[in-house]
Amino acid sequence: MEKMRNYFRQSLARQFVALVTSFLFIFVIGSASLFSYQSSLTTSFEQKKEQIETKMKYAQEIERAFNQAFSDARGYLAFNRKEFKLSIFREQENVQTALDALELAATTKDDTQYILKARQFANYYFGTLVPQAIEAFENGNIQKVLSLSENGGTASIEQFQFQMKTYKNKLTEQLDREFQQLRDDQTKAQTAFILFIFTILTILITIARIMMKKIGRPLNALAVVAEKIAKDEQVVYDMRETTNREDEIGKLATAFKKMLTSIQEKEESLMAHNEELMAQQDELEFQQAELEQALETMQAREQQLKRRNDFINGLSNSLDKQEVLNSIVMHMARVMEADRGMIVLMNDEKTHATFGLSEYGVEQFLTYIYNGLHQRLFEQKKPFMLKREVAASEKGYHEETMFVHDVFLPVLSNENDVQAILVFSRFGGPFSDEDIQEYVGLTKQISISLQKIALYEQSERARETVQHILNTVQEGIHFVDQNGNSMIVNKQMVALLQKQSIAELEGASYERWVRDLVEQSDAGEKLCDYLRAIIFNGDEEREPFVYHLPQKRKVIQVYAKPLYRNGERQGTVFVHRDITKEFEVDQMKSEFVSTVSHELRTPLSSVLGFTELMLTKELKPERQKKYLTTIYQEAKRLTALINDFLDVQRMESGKQTYDKKYEDVVAIIESVIETQKVNTTIHQFHVQKETNKTTVLGDRDKLAQVFTNLISNAIKYSPEGGNITVRIYERGNRLCVDVQDEGLGIPEEAIPNLFTKFYRVDNSDRRRIGGTGLGLAIVKEIVKAHEGEVSVTSELKKGSTFTVSLPLVVMANTGDDERETDEKQAHAHVIIVEDDENLAALLEAELKDSGFRVKLVKEGKEAIELIQKEKPDAVVLDIMLEEHDTSGWDVLKALKQNEELAHIPIIISSALEEREKGMALGANSYLVKPYQPSQLSKTILQMLLNKERQGEIFVPLNEEAN
Amino acid sequence: MAKILLAEDEEVLRMLVVDTLEDEGHDIDEACDGEEALELIKQNDYDLILLDYMMPIYTGLEVIQQVRQMPDKKHVKIMMLSAKSQQADQQRVLDAGADYFMAKPYSPLELVQRIEAILHGEDA
């Protein structure tokens, strides 16, 4: 027992657990007994209720059976029906059975009494009353029946009925009583249970309070002590009572006491230490204040340095002038803490940058740059400061008087010239002398920077110039350094490598540009070797290298020159020259030489061969003659070949001169036919002239050559003979000549090459037909020189038609729209002085067509006489008059000296290009031969119209002009 | 006497060679172009064929190439007569299968001497 108490005393937790356990135990017991009592109450009630209900059931059955019997008896007596009588006795049995059952269930005195009375009544009713009544009834003694009823029969029945009812009521009351009893008992039990709970709780609270007191008080005491210690109050606490305890509180108190003692001991040493620390802290705080001050100074300086740094960075960040100026203004303003500022370069463009200034202000400043305050800078070359009142426009919303400080700073070059000026304004306060000294230092930086930019711009310009020069060179120029890397290229080189821009090629590595070049060219490794040998092996004596660019169809020759500076090799300059033309010319030349040599060797072979035979062999005279004829023909062929060949050469090289005059094509053709007729007997010639305009401007001999070649071809290539038709017609201001034969025809595939030198149609029918293969090439060249065209259509075995078209000489049109001028011209009289009959006729026709009256004269003297006689409205004058020694110049002079004739307008028509001289001598117009005749009419007409405006009147004629 | 074919498009030159060789007693066939030459070569067995280089239809070179394709004509002797006398042209002709080459203009007597040598197996 003592042990157990110790067990609990040592631990509050154990005590608490025991307390809670016992409470729970008592609570469970109480609840269980309440529950069992309640259930017993309910069971007992249920039993009684069942008993009473059983009794009730039987009582009701008895009542029902009696009542049935009563009504049956009455029914029988009233209606005399047998079944009622039977029913009466059946009900008697029911009553007996119910009474027996009820007797078994009877529990109270009331029950027993009721059963007794019921039996008595049953005996009376069934045993006496009913039999008597029935007997009397059956005997017809109704009187007796009635008397029976009146003499107690009915009364006893009614009395019994009442008893039955009373019993039933008693049963009901008993049930109610039992139920009431049950409720009362239950209420009592519940009340008892609540009381029981309440009692337990009270006990529990009491015990808890005692326990709390036991735990709380010493804890509280400890807390108070701890708090006091925390508050650093002196405490004396007697804890003997608590420390004596064996439970947790006891242990805690003991530990607390130990701690307290220890704290008190330590506190003293801490106090001493603390004092020491306090002293140290004072020292530290003093030092910190000093440091903070130093830091502030440092930060300010750092800020300033940063601004200066930004300023310097801004100077060196870019080589773009404007960018640098912007940076200068911005950073200077920051360094100076200025509100606005500006820098202006003293160059031609007055390049400038501003900060915080309006456009108008800038413009004004620039306009008066040599008149303003800053003029002082140019004179003194020293910075200065100004204090001035702020102008209204600058003040914004401030009302009071404000002052602004302006600083003017010169940027001096090495030569002490003012290179740029800086102006900065500050609203905040004046600038100190130290400040300004500092700014002067910065302007030196600016000066250096500006000079650097100037140098850069200069070198950039020089570089651009060099690049421009390189780009104007026709050759691709490419400079590579010692490592073969691409350094400088020009536009042509870029195009050669099919690159987009110079930048793409400049700086390209050796491998890259060589690869590009080799890919483009057809020379491959050979070109690579060539470049490598020059760049890396310094092989300076290499011959130029030629390669092809198949894509561009170009032939390029590249040569290299090493570049030395101070005797040290810097790299190599490659020059890529487009020699496509030279190359093609070369190739054509060698092809041509080969063809010509072949063409020449054939007749030469014959000449030599037959001559040799004749020299070395004894030959019969007829064979000798045959050989000689052959030699002669072959020699002639050789001559023709050489002539044709020389012609073609001269024409192709543009060295052929054409003596162009107005020629009638028909006359030329007819004379050619006359000559050609001799060579054939099997051909018929026809000339069809379908137009009258057959004059062209051309070289008679060369045109004759054209038609000779065409007509002789027609003869040669129609070996069977036939018609050769020459048709002359006009097509859209061009004169066309068809030469048509009925010969072999030309295969279609040969037509495109027909006019090529030495081209011979490869056809067995033609091989015996001789020729140089140059005839049509010559035709083509001559026609081309006459601004004409030659074409051919042909059908095999049917013949060919060659068509030459030449520009017709244009005559002024005389349509309705020119009627008015026609009439004026009709009156005008023109004398033409011209010794070339063809030309004279042509001009006459032209002027007549245009409506002038015309007279022709060949010689100078004759002309002067005629003019004097006729006084024409205009004179057309040739200068080179062959027949006599009076030249056109003489005629002109003579006319101008004669007052009567001096006003007549003179148009010089000459092959000489001496316009100045003619005009000086008084000619009105100068036409250089050959010219289109229409031009002459126009010139004369223009001249006459001008004259009319000057006051002279022409009377129109009424006759038709044409 | 030998049977010889001459293919040459220039009539005058044909006359020169034919006259010269007939004087020497040879039997000469004439062809005016490559096609005709090939026909004659197919139909006849010639001791020697003289070919001009520049001929219509087939050039001398083409004729040689075709002849050398024929099974029974692999060894027929062919001489090329050409105005193209450069070394490279000559080599091309010999590579194509010609046995001999003579440049134009040639001397008829020299040609006769050369042909005699060939026919007697003296010209290698």
TrEMBL record, chain A:
| Segments traversing the membrane | 12-37, 192-212
- Where does this protein chiefly localize? membrane
| Coiled coil region boundaries | 263-308
Task: Name the catalysed reactions.
Answer: ATP + protein L-histidine = ADP + protein N-phospho-L-histidine
Q: Which SMART domains match?
A: GAF (SM00065), HAMP (SM00304), HATPase_c (SM00387), HisKA (SM00388), REC (SM00448)
In the record, which positions carry 4-aspartylphosphate? 878
One GO term of the cellular component aspect? plasma membrane
Q: Does the keyword Protein biosynthesis apply?
A: no
Under Enzyme Commission nomenclature, its number is: 2.7.13.3
Question: Keywords for this entry?
Answer: ATP-binding, Cell membrane, Coiled coil, Kinase, Membrane, Nucleotide-binding, Phosphoprotein, Transferase, Transmembrane, Transmembrane helix, Two-component regulatory system
In this protein, which residues make up the domain named Histidine kinase? 595-810
- Where is it localised? Cell membrane
Q: Which domain of life is it from?
A: Bacteria
MF (Gene Ontology): ATP binding; phosphorelay sensor kinase activity
Alphabetical list of InterPro entries matching this protein: CheY-like_superfamily (IPR011006), GAF (IPR003018), GAF-like_dom_sf (IPR029016), HAMP_dom (IPR003660), HATPase_C_sf (IPR036890), HATPase_dom (IPR003594), His_kinase_dom (IPR005467), HisK_dim/P_dom (IPR003661)
Q: Where is the HAMP domain?
A: 213-268
The UniProt entry, under Pfam families, shows: HAMP, HATPase_c, HisKA, PAS_7, Response_reg
Residues annotated as domain Response regulatory: 829-944
CDD domains, A to Z: HAMP (cd06225), HATPase (cd00075), HisKA (cd00082), REC_OmpR (cd17574)
Membrane protein topology class:
Multi-pass membrane protein
Q: What is this protein called?
A: histidine kinase
Q: What organism does the record attribute this protein to?
A: Anoxybacillus ayderensis
From TrEMBL, chain B:
Instruction: Please name the InterPro entries in this protein's record.
Output: Bact_response_regulator, CheY-like_superfamily, Sig_transdc_resp-reg_receiver
UniProt-recorded name of the protein: Alkaline phosphatase synthesis transcriptional regulatory protein phoP
Source organism per entry reads Anoxybacillus ayderensis
Supply the SUPFAM superfamilies for this chain.
CheY-like
Protein keywords: Phosphoprotein
The alphabetized list of GO BP terms reads: phosphorelay signal transduction system
Which CDD domains does its entry note? REC_hyHK_CKI1_RcsC-like (cd17546)
Modified sites of kind 4-aspartylphosphate: 52
Q: What superkingdom heads the lineage?
A: Bacteria
Q: Which SMART domains match?
A: REC
